[in-house]
Write a structure and sequence with these properties.
- The complex is a heterodimer.
- Chain A is α/β, with parallel strands linked by helices.
- Chain A contains 13 helices and 11 strands.
- In chain A, helix 2 links the parallel strand 1 and strand 2.
- The longest helix of chain A has 17 residues.
- The radius of gyration of chain B is 24 Å and the shape is globular.
- Chain B starts with a helix and ends in an 11-residue tail after the last helix.
- The model of chain B has no long low-confidence stretch (mean pLDDT 88).
- The chains are: A alpha/beta, B mainly alpha.
- At the A-B interface, helix 1, helix 2, strand 2, helix 3 and strand 7 of A face helix 3, helix 14, helix 18, helix 22 and helix 24 of B.
């Protein structure tokens, strides 16, 4: 895609002027004037859906706090397995008029061929946003009937469902099953909570990683209360103290580490546990990265980061965002996000090999 | 439940909800007419406005908009031969043929009446189905989806007319092209040739607009005439009321296709993209006299229009009951529900049942109002069939190119549109029916996904012991037997493309078959080393394609032999001449070359200059309009680009190289 796609003839002229000014002023020394302008927040998923909806909620709040109070519009640039939107922002002119709200899938993208690799570190990183924890949701009629979640660990085998072999929560679940010594098979092709739950009810799968939002809205008072299914363990990001974050909405449900330790009598370790923790550290905190095109002036980036922080602290934003994500969003600041990007880019080969091994078994 | 049903009506009729419903209907009617935009675009644009609204008002506006799009999209299908939206593809075949015969109003009357009935029945059927909707959705697992996809593919026979082998060939090509990108059960993309843009495969909207839209505009430009071929302003008995009478006369077809729409709509991912073809196939297979299909049979309009309006009612069920959005529009609706604090699942069928029923009422009311408005408006719209085609071509080129761009901004989208447009034109000129290509392209991923999940989840014994599988296999067998009987007895005497068979068209067809055989062989060869679930479908489609190409070549050879025999017998005009063929298609190719130049220059001169330049030059050089008409026309095109695509839809444009 050609760099710097933009809007109106007026905006074109403004862009040209901005570009000329950029040549005469030292880079990284100004906050771009957005007064009266339209800033496009590009997301890389199809129109509608969780990504588009959460981008819209963010844009509504951010337009109030951004210097110059520009109009903010949300634009879907879908396609290319999420890369088209990423490339669009990567190649956009750093004039402040294009920002990205991008589903990044960094931790599994590093397994792709070289041609599909994306240099995320080149973006002007503003923040990261994560949704809620996941939990493993399983039928209770497995292995002759499960009385409690402890018995899940004693199953001979379980059929786990997911979106695709590269679904991070799917990988975590299967790695944990390996640690428990439970044989598994993986069924991919069910895109979203709804299709996965329907497949569970049909018996096409026996367990799957569910979102906290689905747990709260459908599962807790429904099949789990009825006793037809159960929440086995939860998986979330890693806190500063090294422990896994527990979602308050999932009270009483152990983390994956706690569950394995209780079932096996020992703290989990080894390559499979490294895979679980790798995704917990690098993937679970962040579903979407909020970025500016490479070359955006540093002072403008600083303004964007400050205004973003103010926007996501706003009560109205939090109320809307909580509806979309299922629980309050997990905000990762620019420094932490840059650290995550660097960690992902430097993923050890042993972790990559362990993930490739898992995927190979998932694909059979 | 009945109390909730009435409470739902109360929610819709309350002010300002009803006002927003009317606003949604107005926007939806307009969006349906513009090729490429459709209901999802409108819903995405309006979605942010609903955040601050009362939930019932927001949902009424969004659903009201979407409900009528599949009614007004008929206008483009009938008048231009371009599907206004994905849901009105099949209407193109007979609807456009009717317009060309000066029967546009009759087509409108029949279509709008059928649409209204289908929409109302769809809403009511949704309400009536709620008690057992969960059972239906849970009963239809992956094995059933696989069989339903096969059933859909069997309709290839019905939409191929008298060119079965070429129809199968087009379907095989559609199936094969649908295999590009990431498969369901593998982490490695297929057939992407190191191009990121191909990782999700070819985008559907440019494929459909290219396949039908570009060839129609090429023909219209070449004719230098109006859409209607007749010289007077209306065919003798053309009229909206006549169309309504035709719909009433075919009322059982309307009922059957509406019910088909509801229940196909319940099946995610199949829905609106194929239901009109299924309905069209049903209409042709069930008709005693099929000779007029493809030439302007009103039943070819009634069946798809009844079905595509009924789909919405059906598709709401998995969306509300399970949070399974079977289409882009349902994904947006799910977003609206989320932001208003509703969660799909048992809540929508329990404590929020009145809201669910308010959606049923919205569909019913919107369909009635939408159809009534269009019946009034239809007379004026039908006159466009007699407008100089040179006024229409640049405007429609604008809409189909920008309509594709809106969905996936980027030059790749336009290249896809151009490429598929050329393919569509070649298919048409070679006598290959185009509808089977779309059926294959849409059903390919559904078929593969269902097969993959079935393979991963079930044992063979589990599959064949499912009662629903046994029932569907029986249905499949019956439909296959009918299709086979129809083919063997040559019952399908109608032609879908109405291509005049000449020696040159047969040679073109044979050349195409050889080229595609190489494509299929190459695709199979590339897939040999892939993992089982990644290669199963492409190899199956490729091998089937190779076999079908053999049949096409054999059939063409026989027909060429007949022409040679006729010439040997003294009829030197048999099969036409190459010069005649080139003369017939030369002007179309000139337009395609002009459009290609527009696309090629866009990265250098930008979107505005490319489109305005094309429109202005076309009007001046091809249309030979006076300079002030050219100026006014080009300005109007510019206004649409700026006002609609830039300011309203915020479409990112290509910039000229110097900016």
């Amino acid at each position: 895609m050609k760099p710097g796609m933009t809007k109106t003839p007026g905006a074109l002229a403004a862009s040209a002027l901005t570009a000329m000014l950029a040549l005469t002023a030292p880079a990284g020394a100004q906050v771009l004037d957005l007064d009266g302008k339209t800033v496009t927040l590009v997301h890389n998923a199809s129109p509608g859906g969780a990504t588009g909806l959460s981008a819209q909620v963010l844009a509504d709040a951010w337009a109030q706090t951004m210097a110059g109070n520009p109009t903010m519009v949300v634009q879907s640039v879908a396609g290319g397995a999420l890369t088209k939107g990423i490339d669009h922002v990567m190649e956009a002119r750093p004039d402040g008029l294009t920002l990205g709200y991008l589903a990044w899938q960094g931790t599994t993208r590093i397994l792709d061929p070289e041609i599909l690799q994306i240099p995320f570190e080149e973006f002007g990183t503003i923040a990261g946003i994560g949704g809620s924890n996941f939990l493993v949701h399983a039928r209770t009629d497995l292995g002759g009937g499960l009385e409690g979640r402890d018995e899940f660990a004693s199953l001979e085998s379980v059929k786990v469902g997911g979106y695709s072999p590269k679904m991070t929560q799917g990988m975590q679940t299967l790695a944990a099953l390996d640690l428990l010594g439970v044989d598994w098979s993986y069924v991919s092709g069910m895109f979203g909570d709804g299709p996965l739950y329907a497949a569970l009810q049909r018996g096409e799968i026996e367990a799957y990683p569910a979102t906290t939002a689905q747990y709260m809205n459908e599962l807790e008072a429904g099949p789990i209360a009825d006793g037809t299914s159960m929440a086995v363990w939860q998986m979330g990001p890693i806190l500063e103290d090294g422990t896994m974050k527990k979602d308050p909405a999932l009270e009483g449900i152990p983390t994956v580490g706690e569950y394995i330790e209780a079932a096996t009598g020992a703290a989990p370790e080894g390559p499979m546990w490294d895979v679980v923790m790798y995704h917990a550290e690098a993937s679970a905190p962040v579903n979407w990265i909020v970025v500016a095109p490479p070359g955006t002036p540093e002072e403008h980036l600083a303004m964007l980061r400050e205004s973003f922080d103010a926007a996501v602290a706003d009560a109205a934003y939090l109320e809307q965002a909580t509806k979309v994500y299922g629980s309050p969003p997990n905000i990762v600041n620019a420094e932490e996000m840059s650290g995550i990007i660097a960690d992902v880019q430097n993923t050890p080969e042993e972790i990559k090999d362990a993930m490739r091994g898992l995927i190979d078994r998932m694909e059979r | 439940m009945f109390d909730s049903f009435l409470a739902g009506l109360g929610l819709v009729l309350t002010f300002p909800t009803f006002f927003y419903l009317l606003a949604g209907i107005a926007v939806g009617l307009w969006l349906g007419v513009v090729p490429g935009l459709g209901g999802v675009t409108g819903m995405v644009v309006l979605l942010p406005l609903t955040f601050g609204m009362d939930p019932a008002a927001g949902l009424a506006m969004l659903l009201g908009l979407f409900a009528v799009v599949s009614t007004s999209d008929t206008i483009t299908s009938v008048m231009l031969g371009i599907p206004g939206t994905i849901a009105s593809q099949a209407t193109v075949i007979d609807g456009n043929a009717m317009a060309k015969r000066g029967l546009a109003q009759t087509a409108f009357g029949a279509a709008f009446a059928s649409s209204a009935f289908g929409g109302v029945l769809g809403g009511l059927a949704m309400a009536a189905s709620l008690p057992f909707a969960l059972w239906i959705i849970l009963a239809f697992g992956s094995p059933e989806f696989f069989l339903l996809s096969l059933l859909g593919l069997l309709m290839v026979g019905a939409v191929s007319g008298n060119a079965i082998s070429k129809g199968l060939g087009a379907a095989a090509l559609g199936l094969m092209l649908s295999q590009m990108g990431y498969p369901v059960a593998s982490s490695m993309p297929r057939y992407f040739f190191d191009q990121r843009v191909l990782l999700d495969g070819l985008p559907l909207v440019p494929v459909i607009l290219g396949l039908f839209g570009l060839p129609e505009m090429m023909d219209l430009a070449a004719r230098r005439s109006a859409i209607a071929h007749i010289s007077d302003t209306r065919a003798e008995d053309d009229g909206i009321l006549n169309g309504i009478r035709q719909a009433i006369r075919n009322r059982w077809l309307v009922v059957r296709c509406s019910l088909m729409g509801v229940y196909v709509g319940m099946l995610p991912a199949i829905g609106s993209s194929v239901v009109d073809w299924l309905a069209y196939g049903h209409a042709t297979q069930g008709a005693k006299d099929r000779s007029q299909f493809g030439k302007g049979d009103v039943r070819g309009v009634i069946a798809p229009e009844a079905a595509n309006n009924a789909v919405l009612g059906g598709s709401l069920i998995p969306t509300l009951a399970f949070g399974i959005p079977g289409s882009g529009a349902m994904a947006v609706l799910l977003g609206a529900l989320t932001i208003h604090g509703f969660s799909p699942g048992r809540n929508m069928l329990g404590e929020n049942l009145d809201t669910t029923f308010s959606m049923v009422w919205t569909i019913i009311i919107a369909n009635i109002i939408g159809a009534a408005a269009l019946m009034i408006w239809g007379r004026q719209v039908a006159r466009a069939a007699f407008v100089d085609g040179n006024f229409i071509v640049p405007a429609v080129i604008l809409f189909i190119f920008m309509g594709s761009w809106v969905w996936e901004p980027g030059m790749f989208t336009w290249i896809t549109l151009l490429g598929v447009g050329l393919l569509g034109y070649v298919l048409k000129a070679a006598g290959w029916p185009r509808p089977p290509f779309i059926l294959g392209f849409v059903l390919g991923p559904v078929l593969e996904s269902a097969l993959s999940i079935t393979w991963q989840s079930y044992t063979p014994m589990e599959v064949i012991s499912r009662p629903t599988v046994i029932g569907l296999v029986l249905v499949l067998g019956v439909v296959f037997a009918f299709a086979l009987r129809s083919t063997r007895r040559g019952l399908a005497e109608h032609s879908i493309e109405n291509t005049v068979e000449t020696k040159a068209s047969l040679l073109l067809s044979s050349g195409l078959a050889v080229l595609l055989a190489m494509v299929f062989a190459g695709a199979v060869w590339m897939a040999l080393d892939w993992k089982l679930l990644a290669k199963l479908s492409p190899i199956s489609f490729g091998v089937a394609g190779l076999v079908i190409m053999g049949f096409v070549l054999l059939q063409d050879r026989v027909r060429l032999g007949r022409i040679a025999a006729a010439r040997a017998a003294g009829d030197q005009s048999a099969g036409g001449t190459l010069a005649g063929f080139v003369a017939d298609h030369g002007r179309q190719m000139t337009l395609l070359a002009a459009v290609t130049l527009m696309v090629a220059l866009t990265p250098w001169i930008g979107t505005y200059a490319a489109i305005l330049g094309f429109a202005g030059l076309y009007a001046a050089l091809w249309g030979r309009f006076r300079w002030w008409i050219v100026a006014l026309y080009t300005a109007a095109i510019g206004l649409v680009l700026y006002g609609l695509y830039d300011r309203v839809l915020h479409t990112p444009f290509e910039l000229p190289f110097f900016m």
